[in-house]
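[Meeting: bench + compute handoff]

Bench side (C.D.) handed over the final construct sequence. Compute side (W.E.) agreed to return the predicted structure before the next meeting so the bench team could plan truncations. Sequence as handed over:
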Amino acid sequence: MTDDHQLARELADLAGERLLAVRAELHEAGIEGRELKDAGDIASQEVLADALRERVPDDAVLSEEATDDHERLSSQRVWIIDPLDGTREFSEVPRDDWAVHVALWQDGELVAGAVALPARGVTYGTDASGRAGIPARPDGDPPLRLAVSRSRPPAFAEELGRTMGATTVPMGSAGVKAMSVVDGSSDAYVHAGGQYEWDSAAPVAVAAAYGLHTSRVDGSPLVYNKENPWSPDLVVCRPEVAESLLAALATMDLG
């Protein structure tokens, strides 16, 4: 019997395969921009919704691409999904910094999740499949590397860089930025402009499974399956830099 960790990975991979096929087919036909973004959102949502109905019909779902009927608020198990995180990057062939997010919330906690990066052929999950520790930082105390949006870098990133002697690493979707801390290509991802639960649930579940620090910018726990699924801020970082990073953030106006 497939457990929840395996199921999250299987669902993310299934949606990723569909997204790659849709992207290739429509790009070859000359379809791009908004039409390509919408096609990806719709196709991935259909795959995930159908699979969840078949595999876990009694579970509730919170998705970016579906109406929130709030039945999830009385459910013990809620799948929080973003069928296509990084639609801009998905539509800009051949960019690979977009993702599929699948997470399971149960009784107040994120208990399973997967983040697929289909164009890179890799999926990170809370299962044990292929999971190893995060890579060590290079020797010599190099500058902290902050993952930031390539199109909308936060205003505080420059100040944080000066305060901590950090450099910024621009990239696409929230899932890609969080997974860059997992794969060692950055040391921290800080978001303070607000985002929805589906933007961060799966990345946070996976990051925590790899031993990373996850919290709000004030260090308090992240909470999911709220009536209003809006989340103000987020920190995902290597555990050894969490204390200094949170201390620096506490001195800044992140509004």
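W.E. noted at the follow-up: The first helix runs from residue 4 to 28. C.D. will use this when planning the next construct.
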